[in-house]
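Reading a protein record of the kind used here takes little practice once its layout is understood. The fold follows as a row of integers, each naming the local backbone shape at the matching residue. With these conventions in mind, the following record can be read line by line:

_____
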Amino acid sequence: MLKNRLVGLLIILMVIGMFSGCSNGDTTLSDETITEKVKLYYSDSGNEHFMIEEREIVFSKDQDKYAIVLQELINGPVNLDLRSNIASKTIVYGTMKQSNDLIVNLSKDFCCFGGSIAEIIAVGSVVNTLTSFDQEINRVKILVEGEELIGLSGNPRGFMEPFDNNITQPEVGKEVALYFCNQDATALETETRTISVPADISVTDLMLRTLEELIKGPTNSNLHKTIPAEVQVNKVEIDNNIAYVDFSMEMHTQHWGGSTGEGMTINSIVYTLTEFPGVEKVKMTVEGEPISIEHGPIEEAVGRP
């Protein structure tokens, strides 16, 4: 009995010694922290141009770097000549990185804008700040209380690329035609939708945004989606009247399969993109390889049947 008590006391003393050793001034925390210089995007005093303020952030490997950067942005500029258009009460709930895209979730305070220009600059400051890391983030989607941020047109903004650094461009509503599967899975039907995009958006960027809307699925309850919700559009290009579209691997791994499902997916993409003037066919790939859902790889560009 006495021997067991001595062993127990020895174990307790060892544990106390371990914790006291961790509490002294010589810790390894400094070896685990990272110091990084970041670019925070604000505006000039007249809310006409984006301005950059550099700042150093310190974080550990297990912390959300992008959330820390966003909090620094929300804290506002040190330079009194710069202006922040983001409410200081805005809370960063967290971020989620998907390949080279980033989704951020903010509190509803973010939407307390002082007008349409202030809104564009606030959104642009978040996007430009988070895409300023070299080869880390290409696009940013903003959620507010878990729901997609709505643009000036009344539609979700979706994933956004960096804004023009010199002067903000107002957004406009563009009407696009999306093709979804009908209730009986026998044909495609059109759903017209207005999306919010920059006034000077390129044709390929507009096509990319249109495909993202197609992936979201229909608003009409009598229609059905044709592309898995997890799919992302990696790239869109146009050459010789052919649209080249590259999708993420989820087009293969998350697709429900079946010959009918494959046909609806392929044709909905082709019909949607050939609505654009000059586009006659679509060449589809998945992570650079020919799309292959049910019947093997589709090597050639596909036109409307």
